[in-house]
């Protein structure tokens, strides 16, 4: 749950909402979406979901009624999650207090409020399937790749999107001018001019403390991710993330800098 960032997106901290009860606003170029209640309340949360329902939602973007989730829910990354990890997250969420709180309607205009066109969107921009380890790299690198690309879904924020909202894979992790809440998200490829240019040790330390090499502190959505997610990971997992990120292809891109 920590690695997947569930508490950050599904808690409306600005309104002092209870954990996992939803209502967190996420501003996008298509409108503002509000996260749903994922407590085990059977009426307003996910308490009535089976294991199959949960995995279909998380890994394929399919709601229990068969309709599609909007890709603001990062199932395009979560699809790589193992079933075991997905069901572990479900078990944790179902151990939390059930809270009755009705989900808030998204503030999104047509046609971006329609769910049926997402079938076509998925045909173009969604490729399902579990994470596959790269035999050309060792276990630590592959652990980092899994954490970055599947659970922590870093590319969802750090990669720019096309006009239809699909990730531009040619600019993977190279920054996004219009990230969460309209804020720019930096290039985290190892490009020395426009990217991180950090060592593995510096990046791992940042993920643990939120402190950059120049002693500045993380801000915005990244500060939230550090506070709610990355600082809870093991040192080995943070090191694995750093190992993978620093080994990404360097892409020069001034967006988000």
Helix content: 25-40%
Q: Could you report the average pLDDT, rounded to the nearest whole number?
A: 91
Q: Can you count the helices? A: 10
CATH architecture of the largest domain: Orthogonal Bundle
Q: Radius of gyration, rounded?
A: 18 Å
Broad shape = globular
Task: Give your account of this protein's structure.
The chain is mostly helical. It folds into two domains: 6-97, no CATH class; 139-246, Cytochrome Bc1 Complex, Chain D, domain 2 (Orthogonal Bundle). Helices cover 33% and strands 4% of the residues. The protein is built from ten helices and three strands. A hairpin with a 2-residue loop joins strand 1 (25-28) and strand 2. Helix 2 (51-60) crosses helix 4 (83-94), helix 6 (139-151) packs across helix 10 (235-246) and helix 8 (200-209) packs across helix 10. It is globular and about 50 Å long.
At a glance:
The chain is mainly α. The protein contains 10 helices and 3 strands, in the order αββαααβαααααα.
Brief descriptors of the model:
257 residues, Cytochrome Bc1 Complex, Chain D, domain 2, mainly alpha, three-stranded antiparallel sheet, 4% strand, 2 domains
Q: Which SSEs are present, and which pair or pack?
A:
Elements: H1 6-9, E1 25-28, E2 31-34, H2 51-60, H3 75-78, H4 83-94, E3 107-108, H5 118-125, H6 139-151, H7 155-158, H8 200-209, H9 220-228, H10 235-246
Helix pairs in contact: 2-4, 6-10, 8-10
């Amino acid at each position: 749950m920590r690695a997947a960032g569930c508490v950050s997106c599904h808690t409306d901290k600005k309104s002092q909402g209870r954990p996992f009860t939803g209502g967190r606003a996420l501003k996008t170029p298509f409108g503002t979406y509000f996260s749903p209640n994922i407590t085990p309340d059977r009426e307003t949360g996910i308490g009535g979901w089976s294991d199959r329902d949960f995995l279909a939602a998380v890994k394929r973007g399919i709601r229990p009624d068969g309709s599609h989730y909007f890709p603001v829910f990062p199932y395009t990354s979560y699809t790589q999650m193992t079933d075991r990890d997905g069901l572990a997250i479900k078990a944790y969420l179902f151990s939390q207090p059930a809270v009755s709180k009705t989900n808030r309607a998204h503030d999104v205009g047509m046609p971006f409020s329609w769910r049926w066109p997402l079938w076509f969107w998925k045909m173009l921009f969604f490729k399902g399937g579990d994470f596959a380890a790269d035999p050309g790299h060792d276990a630590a690198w592959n652990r980092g790749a899994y954490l970055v690309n599947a659970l922590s879904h870093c590319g969802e924020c750090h990669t720019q999107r096309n006009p239809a909202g699909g990730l531009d894979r040619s600019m993977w992790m190279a920054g996004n001018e219009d990230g969460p809440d309209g804020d720019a998200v930096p290039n985290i490829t190892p490009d020395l001019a426009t990217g991180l240019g950090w060592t593995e040790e510096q990046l791992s330390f940042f993920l643990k403390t939120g402190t950059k090499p120049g002693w500045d502190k993380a801000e915005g959505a990244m500060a939230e991710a550090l506070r709610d997610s990355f600082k809870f990971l093991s040192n080995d997992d943070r090191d694995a993330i750093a190992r993978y990120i620093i080994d990404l292809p360097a892409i020069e891109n001034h967006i988000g800098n």
